Amino acid sequence: MMEELLAKLSDCIEFGKINKVSPYPPNMKDMDGADEITKQLLDGGMSADDILQKGLVIGMEKVGVKFRENKVFVPQVLMSAKAMDAAMAHLKPIFAESSSSRKGTFIIGTVEGDLHDIGKNLVAMMVEGNGYEVIDLGVDVKAEKFIEAADAHPGAVLALSALLTTTMENMKQITKAIKEHNSAIQICIGGAPITQEFCDQIGADSYNPDPQGVVEFLNAKSA
Amino acid sequence: MHHLKIHSVGEIRTVGFETGTSLLEILRSNGVQVMAACGGNGTCGKCKVKVKDVGMVTSCLYFPGHDEEVFLPRSLESKVLTDQHDYTLSIELEPGDLIEKSEHPVGVAIDVGTTSIAMYFIDLNNGHTLGIAGTMNSQGQYGADVISRINYCSHKPDKLKDLQAAVLNDIRSLIQKECESHKRKLTDIVKVSVAANTTMLHMLLGEDPTAIALAPFTPKFIDAKILPASKLELGLNPAAKVHVLPSISAYVGADVVAGLAAIDPPESIKNYLFVDIGTNGEMAIVTPDKIWTCATAAGPAFEGANISCGMGAYAGAISSFSKDDVVTINDEKAIGICGSGLLEAVAYLLDNEIVSMEGNLEEDFVLVDANKSGTGDAVALTPKDIREVQLAKSAISCGIIALTEKAGLSYDEVDALFVAGGFGNYMNIESAIRIGLLPQEMKGKVIQIGNTAGAGAVLDVCSEKFAKRLNEVVKKSEHFDLADDPNFAMNFAMGMYFS
Ligand code: B12
Ligand code: FES
What we know:
The structure holds 2 protein chains of 2 kinds.
Chain A: H1 2-15, H2 34-43, H3 48-68, H4 74-97, E1 105-110, H5 118-129, E2 133-136, H6 143-152, E3 157-161, H7 165-181, E4 187-190, H8 196-202, E5 206-207, H9 211-222
Parallel strand pairs in A: 1-2, 1-3, 3-4, 4-5
Helix pairs in contact in A: 1-2, 1-3, 1-4, 2-4, 3-4, 4-5, 5-9, 6-7
Chain B: E1 2-8, E2 11-17, H1 23-29, E3 48-51, E4 55-58, E5 68-71, E6 106-112, E7 116-123, E8 129-136, H2 146-153, H3 157-181, E9 189-196, H4 198-205, E10 225-228, E11 241-244, H5 254-262, E12 272-276, E13 282-286, E14 291-295, E15 317-322, E16 325-328, E17 336-337, H6 339-351, E18 365-368, E19 379-381, H7 383-406, E20 416-420, H8 422-426, H9 429-434, E21 446-450, H10 452-462, H11 466-476, E22 477-479, H12 488-494
Parallel strand pairs in B: 1-5, 6-9, 9-11, 12-20, 14-22, 15-17, 20-21
Antiparallel strand pairs in B: 1-2, 3-4, 3-5, 6-7, 7-8, 10-11, 12-13, 13-14, 15-16, 18-19
Helix pairs in contact in B: 2-3, 5-10, 5-11, 7-12
The complex binds cobalamin and FE2/S2 (inorganic) cluster (FES).
Cobalamin sits between chains A (74, 114-120, 122-123, 159, 161, 163-165, 188-193, 208, 210-211, 214) and B (145, 147-148, 215, 251, 279-280, 295-300, 391-392, 395, 482-483, 488-489, 492).
C-alpha cells in the first residue's frame, strides 16, 4: 500500500501533478497530486526522509534525465518543480525540527548585474528534489553575499548562474573572491553562455550545461 | 611567425601570425570581417570558415599552429526595406535654415540597426527621396547582439573606438556611394538624422555603453542631441548638423521612438500594439493617453543564430517552406534557413504532427537533402532548434500579453498589431500565429509596417516639427521591466507550448 503510494508520488513529480484540483497534466485529471499523497504518506507513518528519498528523489531524477535528453522542456520541468514544492511544504517543517539526513547544503544565486532567474530556479528545485537543502540567494548577488552564506554553512557547495556575456566577467570576479577567501569552497557554475573552457579558465570546480549534471556532481561528492 | 593564406571572393592574400592567436583574431586584425554572433565566446557556431585539409572550423576556437590556408564565405549584400506605408505620417517639408548652405541641399536619414544599416538620401529642396542604400553593420564581426558588442568594449576605450570606427566607416561609404550615384557633393549634405537603439547610439557617439548591459541598466544618455557633423568626421558641409533622436530606456531606443512617432493610423485604430520581432523584442502598446513599452529579449533565433542551419536573410537561405515548395532567396541552392523560412517550417511540422504540442521532435527533420543543397550537407532542423524557437516565440508572446494587461485592455479592444522591422515585414503572418508568436486573437488585425525607424528618421530630416512629436512619444511613454513582473516566469514557461 505504502509502496504503491510512493510510486504514485514519484509519478506526480515526474509528470508535474501538483494537487487534485490542478488540471495539469490532462491525463491525470481528478487524481490525487503530490500535495495529497505526501500528506497520506505522513499520516500513514512514513518518515519524511523516506518520502523524500524513495518518492521525490526518484521522480525528480527521471525528470532530470528526460530534460537532459531533450524529451521534456522548461514547462514540464517547471510543473514538476511545482509538484515538488507542494510535497516539500509538508516535509520542510519536519526537516527543520529534526537534524535529519539531507545529503548536503547547496547555495545558489544569479551573479551581480544579472536578473535572469528561470534557469537558476530550475537548478535549485532539481537539486532540492534530489534530497539536498537549498539556500537560494536570489538574483544580482554580490561576492560578499555568497561568502557570507558559505561561511554560515560550512561544507556547502556554492552555485553561480549567469545568462549575460557581460555578467560572465562578474562570475569570474566572484569566483576569485570566494576562492581567495577560502579555497576549499566548491563552486559550480552554469548558464546559457557558460562553457567548460570558461570554467577552467576562472578556476571554478564544476560546470554543467543542465541541472542533472550538477545533481550528479553533488551525488558523487556526497557518496 | 607563420603564414596564413586567405582566399576570399576572387582575392588571395597572405598574412603573418603568431601561434596562440585564434583564427578569428588573426582574420580580424587583418581587416577581414567574419560574422561572430557570440563575439568569440565559442557558443554560437556562426564564425565557421573552411581551413584547407581540416574542413570547417569554428574560427574563434581554432588556434593555427603552422602555415595554413583559409577560405572565407562569400560576403553578402543586405536588403533594405524601402516601402513607406500608408499608415506613415505625412508632414510638410520644413528642414530648417541649413538648406541655405548649399544650392542642392541634401538630408540623410539613417537607421543604424544592430544587424544592418539603412540610409535614405533626401533632396531637401523638395523632400523627394533620391536614393536608399543599405549595408550590413560591420560591427557584426564583434558580436551579433548588443550585449556581445558591449562585452567587447566594456571599460576598454580602444575597443570602443573599433566599434565606433566600424559604424562610421559603414556610414561614410554609404554616403559616398549615394553622392556619386546622385551627382551630389559631400558638402551638399547639411543635415543628418539618426534613429537607432540605445546601444548603437552610444557606440556611434563613442560613449561607454557598459552600464546598459548590467542591472540596473542605466544608459549614459537617452535625450535627443544635436551635434556638429564635423564631430563624427563625416566630411560633410562644415555647417551640417547631426540630429540624434531621443530614446526611452536602455532597451527601448530611438528606433522605437521614431517608429512610434512615424505611425499615424486612421481614426478607427485607437489602441494598438507595436512589435519589433528582433533579438531584443522591443514593443509598445499605444492608447489615446498613454504608451507602455517593454523589451522581451527574445534572442536571435529568428535572425538565424542558435539555429543549427540558421542564417540571415541572404542568398541561399530558405525563406519559405511547405511540403512541395521550398523557396530560397535569389533561387540559389539552399545553404541554410532564415527566420521567415524557420517560421513556415515549424508551422508545417506542427500541422503535420511531426513536432508535438510540447515541442518534441523525434529526430532531425531534413528540409533539403544533401545532394540538392548548396553545401553538400543536408539543411535540417534539429530537436534543439525547435527548443530555441520555443524560447524566442514565448518571449515575444509573453511581452505582448504583459503589455496588453498593463494597459488594462483585452485583445478585443486592441484595434491593430503593427509588426515593424525586416523580419516582421517578410514573415508569413499565418505561420507566426500558428506557432504562437503572435496571438490567435489578433488574427486579421496584424499589419506589417516596414522599417518605421527609417521612416521616422526621414520625417526628422524633412521637418523641424517632427522633434516635437518625438518628444510627445517619450513623454507619453512609461517603460516597465518584465523582470519585475511576478507572473512572467510562469507565463513564459507555459507559453513555450504550441497549441
Ligand atoms: C526569459 C528571458 C528574459 C527575461 C528574464 C525573466 C527572468 N525572471 O529570468 C526578461 C524578459 C526579464 C529578460 C530581460 C533581459 N534580457 Co533576457 N532573455 C530571456 C530568454 C528569452 C530566455 C532565458 C531563459 O530563461 N531560458 C530558459 C532557462 C531554463 O534556460 P537557462 O537560463 O539557460 O538555464 C538552463 C541552463 O543554462 C542551466 N543553468 C542555468 N544556471 C545555472 C547554474 C548552474 C550552477 C548550473 C549547473 C546550470 C545552470 O540550467 C538551466 C536549465 O537547463 C533569453 C533568450 C533565449 N532565447 O534564450 C534572453 C537573453 C538571455 N536575455 C538577454 C538580454 C540581453 C536581456 C536584457 C539585459 C536586455 C533585454 N534585451 O531585455 C534584459 C535585462 C536582463 C535582466 N533583467 O537581467 C540576452 C543575453 C545576450 C548575451 N549575449 O548575453 C538573451 C540571450 C537574449 C538576446 N537578446 O540575445 N530576459
Ligand atoms: S562560436 Fe565563434 S563567434 Fe560564436
